[in-house]
Design a protein that fits this description.
The structure is a single chain. It contains 12 helices and 13 strands. By secondary structure, the protein is of the alpha/beta class. It folds into 2 domains: 244 residues, P-loop containing nucleotide triphosphate hydrolases (Rossmann fold); 77 residues, YebC, transcriptional regulation domain (Alpha-Beta Plaits). Strands 5-6-7-3-8-9 form a 6-stranded mixed β-sheet, with helices on both faces. Strand 11 and strand 12 form a beta hairpin. The radius of gyration is 25 Å and the shape is globular. The protein starts with a strand and ends in a 5-residue tail after the last helix. The model has no long low-confidence stretch (mean pLDDT 88).
Length: 331
């Protein structure tokens, strides 16, 4: 059963440009110059129930626009969207009962009233029974460690405290599907760990489907087995995080500190690797596949005197950056 089905989804915006000068401004009154910008460009994907999927891309890639269409905030220009078996836009009333949404930059809590008053209001909005509320929310409040915050007005909370309360608020009706847009932005490490741990728990306990957009690759690594990568409104990768790392990132970086200056040409003749200059003239970094590592080190060690050598894994963040820079379209 799919939680999300998206077929040839497209969203276009009109971008108006102003003409210069007074005459231009006058002409603008009657006819505007505009061009069509395609924020989301015919994308198709499905998400199974219970999956945790990372939806990633640079700023302006179309992530937020997609989420807004999936949650019914924006109407698609064309294409088909079915979320929890419904059209998010047409069956609004019924639909919002089945999703939870956390936008890192936008609050669903009332600013001036105590957190638990907000929770009570949301409980009414979602028509959650007392029994369901108590059973479910006691666990949520305890796990996210927000008990001491319930009496405080939202404006008195730190960002980390507010985000934990936002997450709890999104889960009051225990929705089967959770949209998280940058949920850990600006949070410290301990709060991030707490939120990740909690998301894993609800996924295991209730089979909650989670679609997560974030710039924090450690969030993705901790939570998602699958990533969908967007670039300029198109999907450039949809598959397992593991495969992504194997295709692009099974590389290691070997940092060699030589005793003498070694020309790059010599190194390139010696072993087949991508060489780049290290932090000084005596050091070189070899980018190699994990399987070639022993061979490269053996060759270099037997040919030159070395002061030092160390090996670095390539981080997911670097892999993603490389993919964007190279614009590779692997399937």
């Amino acid at each position: 059963m799919y939680a999300i089905e998206v077929e040839k989804l497209r969203k276009e915006f009109k971008s108006y440009s102003s003409r210069s000068g007074l005459a231009g401004a006058f002409r603008d009154l009657f006819t505007r110059n505009y061009k069509i910008i395609r924020a989301v460009d015919d994308i198709s994907f499905t998400v199974k129930q219970g999956e945790m999927v990372g939806y990633i891309g640079e700023n302006g890639a179309g992530k937020s626009t997609t989420i807004k269409m999936l949650t019914g905030i924006l109407t698609p220009t064309s294409g088909r969207v079915v979320v929890n078996g419904m059209n998010p836009h047409k069956e609004r009333e019924r639909f919002v009962q089945t999703i939870g949404v956390v936008f890192g930059q936008r609050s669903q809590l009332w600013w001036d009233i105590a957190v638990q008053e907000s929770f009570r209001l949301l409980k009414k909005v979602y028509r959650v029974s007392d029994q369901d509320y108590n059973e479910h929310m006691d666990h949520v409040i305890e796990t996210l460690d927000i008990g001491p915050l319930l009496d405080k007005p939202v404006r008195k909370l730190s960002l980390g405290q507010r985000m934990r309360c936002e997450l709890a608020a999104a889960l009051i009706h225990n929705p089967p599907l959770l949209f998280l847009d940058e949920p850990t932005i600006g949070l410290d490490v301990l709060v991030k760990l707490k939120i990740r741990q909690f998301l894993k728990e609800i996924n295991e306990k209730y089979n909650t489907t989670i679609l997560l957009t974030t710039h924090d690759m450690t969030d993705i690594e901790a939570l998602c087995e699958r990533v969908i990568m967007l670039d300029e409104g198109k999907i450039i990768y949809d598959g397992s995080l593991q495969r992504l790392k194997q295709n692009w990132g099974e590389g290691k970086q070997i940092h060699f500190q030589f005793r003498d200056i070694v020309p790059k040409e010599e190194l390139m003749l010696l072993v087949d690797a991508t060489w780049e200059q290290g932090e000084d003239r005596y050091s070189w970094i070899a980018h190699v596949r994990a399987t070639d590592m022993a061979h490269v080190i053996g060759k270099v060690v037997s040919s030159y005197e070395l002061k030092d050598i160390h090996i670095r894994e390539v981080s997911t963040e670097e892999i993603i950056r490389n993919i964007y820079e190279e614009g590779i379209h692997h399937g």
